DNA sequence: ACATAGAGCGAAAACGGTTTCGTGTTAATA
DNA sequence: TATTAACACGAAACCGTTTTCGCTCTATGT
């Protein structure tokens, strides 16, 4: 039902080593024997057992991906990028969801760190970033397991990292709005403990400062998490009827804000403009379509996977060297701002 | 850097078997020795190697998930359901994407079928359904590897299955539109080789027939794949200015169709109503929000995982018995139809 | 004083491969 | 004829566990 080397050896009355070598086309084995063995193996559809090979090689050809969430477009595109690249190099991808929970993140890593994978690709849960506790990552890297951090990263851990330049993305988006004559630009973001929100907020403020408009802190709404908070956003707009543009830290906040504006009878982009982050279906098919800062998730996944696999397969150098790859964000202009 | 039983045994000058037993709190071992071993193990953070255990037990505690796509909301929710349930039972999830390709599906399954996983959860690629070639599934089931098929299934393979009642969902949605006085209801779907599209088309037709309205085949647009085809949809509406309601096989088609209608100056739902399949972000945050047939992806994933793990862990019965679980779809009424 | 039971531990096989090293046979060479 | 090299293959170790079985030693009972 699943044939092994031993089975073939028994049937053909040769040794296991001979079978193994014959299947690898070793020079050591005679043509006759090789043909016999290979024919038999093909007939019974022999395939070597991955687990046995993993045990021998101390290499599983699995990579562990631990992310906070899978339903949001950005993370799914990253996974897709990882999966495509990893698969092309013969690796499988084990996906674990932390669901923004520190404990789950720790448990997931522990489950995988005992031999199941050759390395980790991960994006930190919000709770982890909030606590600032990275011991689970330290333990793993100290064990010699390579880690690549993407998007939600930390400086506390020395490892390869891949991010987009969130500050630049927010800066350019804000700048674009300013260029179009917007003066009262709101920002809907989350608390600063999330590395990406912090960077985006900085870019937003910098653009306002550079342009001379100045920052009005009251125009910044900081939601506790990335979870949708309809009431929070609604209340914010009730108190800020005068804003003429909104930058949002993700596409859902932006699309929901657009709806609120439309329900108030505002015209987009004539009366008010919107820009979000993440170039997903929502942005593309919203009405009007939403201008966004594209995060290039698939590219990010691909690069993360490449960095990880290169490190996994690379010779251990005496002096470990880590790099941080910063991707450039792209502004995808659609109908929620002037063209 | 990663301690093994052998290391502990050497340090403590006992045998490997003693260490193994001591860590399992075996009665065979004296209190003294157990305490010594356990203390040492804790100190050096010993964790058994999963690969070695897998080889021994012939159980990996991994389950393979092969799906056509990961960026669409439905599949991501299924994965989430699978992951949550599987994790709770100590299993990891290896995700492979077929990207609607038969060959990739085959390759992915072969990669995993050689010991990497204990069972498969999968949804067929469109190309597979089109070819009707299920030999890769047959091979796997004949090897005794349990398989659970969800959503895109086939009768050709005997295994556990989980689906929603697509025909019923389409029937109810169409019925709802008819109740609201709609007479010219269009259907945007894909070719019938996709099991779900076929079932939904049947439900749509049945509702029309049952109500006495009758089916007008020209009002059915069959796109070649689930991929967005903006031109195809646009052209269709150009030729069907008279439709007063549209049922779409997914949410993207529906939201895009709504936009076309809006651009024509039509009011939703006064002039024209829309219903889609899949209760994702798009439906929820579209403007107007989209009424959909919810497919309960997360539940589906959960049930699939449960069926699979139960089978994996269950005693082999002499007579294998398979079940097909049919979930009931739910109509989520939003602003794209009358309330 | 001697058989015996039981406590405590180790040797070894097993899971399914890979790989090194050795060995017997044959044929070529001195 | 004796030596040697090449050829073809097998034995065994190894990866890290689990588990069965057997052994030794002590303590108990007669």
Give the key terms.
homodimer; 339 residues; 6-stranded mixed β-sheet; elongated; DNA-binding; transcription (chains A, B)
Descriptive account of the structure:
The structure is a homodimer of 339-residue chains. Chain A is an alpha/beta fold. Chain A has 14 helices and twelve strands. The radius of gyration of chain A is 26 Å and the shape is elongated. The N and C termini of chain A lie far apart (64 Å). The interface between A and B is large, with 53 and 53 residues. Strand 2 of chain A pairs antiparallel with strand 2 (92-97) of chain B. Chain B binds a DNA duplex (30 and 30 nucleotides) through residues 4-6, 14-18, 20-21, 24, 27-30, 33, 48-49, 51-58, 115.
Average predicted confidence as pLDDT of chain A: 96
Radius of gyration of chain A: 26 Å
Please give the number of β-strands of chain A: 12
Percent strand of chain A equals: 15-25%
Largest interface: A-B, 53 and 53 residues
Oligomer: homodimer
> What is the SS-derived class of chain A?
alpha/beta
Q: How far is the N terminus from the C terminus of chain A?
A: 64 Å
Based on CA inertia axes, which overall geometry of chain A fits? elongated
Largest sheet strand order of chain A: 2-1-3-4-5-11
Task: List the uncertain runs of chain A.
Answer: none
Task: Give helix and strand order of chain A, one letter per element, not per position.
Answer: HHHHEHEHEHHEEHEHEHEHEHEHEE
Q: In DSSP terms, counting alpha (H) and pi (I) runs of 4 or more, how many helices of chain A? A: 14
Biggest β-sheet strands, sense, barrel of chain A: 6 strands, parallel
In helices, the fraction of residues of chain A equals: 40-55%
């Amino acid at each position: 039902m699943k044939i092994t080397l031993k089975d073939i050896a028994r049937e053909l009355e040769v040794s296991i080593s001979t079978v193994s070598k014959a299947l690898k086309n070793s020079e050591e084995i005679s043509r006759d024997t090789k043909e016999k063995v290979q024919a038999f193996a093909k007939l019974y559809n022999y395939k070597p057992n991955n687990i046995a090979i993993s045990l021998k090689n101390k290499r599983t050809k699995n990579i562990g991906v631990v992310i906070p969430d899978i339903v949001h477009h950005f993370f799914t595109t990253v996974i897709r990028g990882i999966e495509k690249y990893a698969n092309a190099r013969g690796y499988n991808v084990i996906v674990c969801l932390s669901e923004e929970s520190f404990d789950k993140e720790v448990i997931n890593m522990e489950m995988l760190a005992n031999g199941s994978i050759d390395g980790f690709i991960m994006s930190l849960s919000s709770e982890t970033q909030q606590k600032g506790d990275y011991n689970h990552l330290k333990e793993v890297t100290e064990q010699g397991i390579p880690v690549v951090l993407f998007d939600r990263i930390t400086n506390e851990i020395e490892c390869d990292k891949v991010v987009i330049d969130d500050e630049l993305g927010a800066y350019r988006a804000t700048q674009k709005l300013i260029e179009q004559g917007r003066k009262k630009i709101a920002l809907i973001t989350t608390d600063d403990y999330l590395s990406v929100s912090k960077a985006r907020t900085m870019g937003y403020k910098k653009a306002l400062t550079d342009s001379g408009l100045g920052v009005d802190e009251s125009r910044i709404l900081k939601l506790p998490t990335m979870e949708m908070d309809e009431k929070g956003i609604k209340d914010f707009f009730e108190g800020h009827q005068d804003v003429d543009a909104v930058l949002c830290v993700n596409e859902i906040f932006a699309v929901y804000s657009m709806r609120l504006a439309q329900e108030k009878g505002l015209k987009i982009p004539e009366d008010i403009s919107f820009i979000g982050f993440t170039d997903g279906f929502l942005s593309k098919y919203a009405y009007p379509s939403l201008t966004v800062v594209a995060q290039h998730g698939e590219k990010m996944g691909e690069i993360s996977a490449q960095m990880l696999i290169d490190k996994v397969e690379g010779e251990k150098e005496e002096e470990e060297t880590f790099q941080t790859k910063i991707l450039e964000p792209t502004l995808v202009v659609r109908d929620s701002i002037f063209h």
